[in-house]
Design a protein that fits this description.
about 180 residues, Rna Polymerase Sigma Factor, Chain: A, Arc Repressor Mutant, subunit A, elongated, mainly alpha, disordered N terminus, about 85% helix
Length: about 180
């Protein structure tokens, strides 16, 4: 037991020092186990793979903050669980927004008056143009580029919560001003 604790402290110290060999060892040791855990949470292999990649990316990115007194295995699994919870909440919030967005689009498509359709499209386009800069950028990355909230957050270097806030603000603005 003591040897394992000492080895874990050595691994964490080597990670903190930026040793790639230590990181490769960490990934090889926990990758499959963590993936199985993430699949059990998500029931979605693609999402589980994303969670595992995010966990390891986050550990490498924030390696200087690692604490040698942590149980590395418990720490990694806790990060994976938190990423799952964040993803679940994000999907829940976005899916309701997307449902409203799709319903609005269906209303537009179902209408026979093409002049009204053109007017609504023009109104939405102008609404997007009037969004605040960061809000517009986030909205366009999401809807035009099809990026996930996590990808957008990494791209513009903000938190996922900030991305969610920008998207919520954009949809609210577009609903009231378009």
């Amino acid at each position: 037991m003591f040897k394992r604790l000492k080895k874990q402290k050595d691994l964490i110290s080597r990670l903190k020092n930026g040793e790639e060999e230590a990181f490769v060892f960490l990934v090889k040791t926990y990758d499959k186990l963590l993936f199985s855990y993430a699949v059990s949470l998500t029931n979605d292999r693609a999402m589980a793979k994303d969670i595992v990649q995010d966990v390891f990316f986050g550990i490498w990115k924030d390696r200087k903050k690692l604490n040698t007194s942590y149980s590395l295995k418990n720490f990694i699994f806790k990060i994976a669980y938190n990423k799952f919870v964040n993803q679940y909440h994000k999907n829940k919030a976005i899916s309701s927004l997307e449902r409203v967005y799709m319903e609005s689009l269906n209303e537009l498509v179902d209408e026979e008056n093409t002049d009204l359709l053109k007017e609504k499209i023009k109104s939405v386009t102008e609404g997007i143009g009037n969004l605040p800069k960061k809000c517009k950028e986030t909205f366009m990355l999401s809807k035009n580029e099809g990026l996930t909230n996590i990808e957008i957050a990494e791209y513009i270097d903000v938190s996922v919560k900030t991305v969610e806030g920008h998207l919520t603000k954009a949809f609210k603005f577009l609903r009231t001003n378009s």
